[in-house]
Specification:
With 439 residues, the chain is α/β, with parallel strands linked by helices. It is built from 12 helices and 21 strands. Strands 4, 14, 15, 16, 17, 18, 19, 20 and 21 form a 9-stranded mixed beta sheet that branches.
Length: 439
């Protein structure tokens, strides 16, 4: 089984004391040591999936794995993934700064995004990032100007919308034609003409697409590669330029609950490789360098969030709510996308008394519900609740709503635990506040 097909980190077990254990660490001890709410990342699961990706694509001679930083950008995670041979897809100055902080080789960075600022493009060029995926005409002109002012020739890809619809949440679908991202296929020729005739400080190496996130289908990847290679063939015939790099984006789904059935990494890799082989043969093209940008599938399963249960409320003739010490500010996905999660009580329970409850967050909004109608073992005040599969797009989309402090993050492995993000402090919460003298 591929790691993205697991709900829990691969090192998860119930130990001899009857407590949940991850990375050889007793979760009740972790809670005592670091307090809750707490993000926990299992290093074994993280390195495991990174290695699965590497192995699954090893059939291709030229492939670059770029972790999509937006899923979780924390310096220690960047360091681990860089050690595992990953580069990074970044989309902001902040992500760029963080990967630099982790000493990642800047050649292994692709800078994406539909509205990069002048400052960010300057920063990217000063850092020497390997590729910039240019999204639109304005950026082409701007980037060329900046590259010229620095006397640099910057390697770029063009982000395209391949016109492929995949069946995922509307907000995380990006490859269909009515999308804010990238050049429409009808605009590519104009972009290429501008690059060859005017933008002499840009070197176009290939095309980039991303069709969506939390994808369970495989045919969409086959089709996506087909569309990209067909364009490369058309460009070759029309302009005599053979682009040699393709970036297929990310998107592979994970198993939040037993309702989710994502394909394995190997299955998706085989579909992508087959499509490259078939279409290169069909169009008589050299095999391109492949870039892929998985985000969610790399970090989701390795991560869990640990909460302490507080108050509860039994609605007369209705639901029973149990409230935890976190919620929509540390994991906005349930309230934003209706995302579903699985959880279990982490501490030993003498008896098995299953009870159907709804897990509510602590934030001042009725929509702050983490899990609707889940069966937990006799949840009581003071119990620890472990919510699984929160490694992706939880911390990275977290906020300080209600001025609640962001949780810490701990890395566990081989019975060792280390802080990788400190818990926020009240001082940090107000550090950017300014009270002008005149008031
Ligand atoms: N490459 C590009 C250009 C992307 O836009 C994305 C995600 C990825 C790669 C990584 O996709 P992944 O492998 O993680 O599916 N906040 C949403 C997900 C937004 C994804 C945006 N782009 C969520 O929590 O579900």
């Amino acid at each position: 089984m591929s790691i993205n097909q697991n709900i829990k980190p691969i090192s998860t077990k119930i130990n001899e004391r009857g407590n949940l254990e991850i990375g050889g660490c007793d979760i009740t001890e972790i809670a005592n040591k670091y307090s809750t709410p707490l993000y926990i990342m299992d290093e074994q699961t993280l390195r495991g999936i990174a290695r699965e990706y590497k192995k699954a694509f090893s059939r291709l001679e030229n492939v670059n794995m770029m972790f999509a930083s937006k899923a979780l950008m924390v310096s220690a995670i960047a360091k681990i993934l860089s050690e595992e041979g990953f580069g990074f897809d970044v989309v902001s100055g902040g992500e760029l700064y963080t990967v630099k902080n982790a000493n990642v080789n800047m050649k292994n960075i692709t800078f994406n995004g539909n509205n990069k600022t002048t400052d960010e493009l300057n920063m990217a060029l000063d850092y020497g990032v390997g590729r910039i995926s240019v999204d639109n005409f304005l950026e082409l002109a701007l980037l060329n100007e900046i590259a010229k002012s620095k006397n640099i020739t910057q390697k770029i890809l063009l982000r395209i919308t391949p016109g492929i619809e995949c069946h995922t949440h509307e907000y995380i679908q990006t490859g269909h034609l009515d999308s804010k991202f990238g050049f429409d296929l009808t605009q590519i020729d104009e972009a290429i003409e501008l690059i060859s005739d005017e933008y002499k400080n840009l070197e176009l190496t290939g095309l980039h697409a991303h069709i969506g996130s939390q994808i369970f289908e495989t045919q969409v990847y086959y089709d996506e590669i087909g569309v990209i290679l067909k364009e490369i063939k058309r460009i070759k015939d029309k302009f005599g330029i053979e682009l040699y790099e393709i970036n297929a984006g990310g998107g592979l789904g994970v198993t939040y609950t037993t309702d989710d059935c994502p394909p394995s990494v190997e299955t998706v890799a085989n579909v992508i490789i087959d499509s490259i082989e078939k279409h290169c043969e069909k169009y008589n093209l050299k095999k391109p360098v492949l870039y892929i940008e998985p985000g969610r599938s790399i970090v989701a399963t390795a991560g869990v969030t640990l909460y302490t249960i507080g108050s509860s409320k039994q609605v007369p003739n209705g639901r029973k709510y149990i409230a935890v010490d976190g919620g929509m500010a540390d994991n906005p996905r349930p309230s934003m996308y209706g995302a579903k999660y699985f959880a279990q009580i982490a501490n030993y329970k003498e008896e098995n008394i299953p009870e159907k409850v709804t897990v509510a967050g602590r934030f001042c909004e009725s929509g702050d519900i983490l899990i609707k109608d889940i069966e937990l073992n006799n949840p009581q005040e003071g119990d620890l609740l472990c919510v699984f599969n929160t490694g992706a797009y939880g911390y990275s989309m977290s906020s300080n709503y209600n001025c609640v402090l962001k949780p810490a993050m701990v890395l566990v492995n081989s019975s060792q635990s280390d802080i990788i993000v400190e818990r926020q402090t009240y001082e940090q919460l107000v550090q950017n506040d300014v009270i002008p003298d005149r008031i």
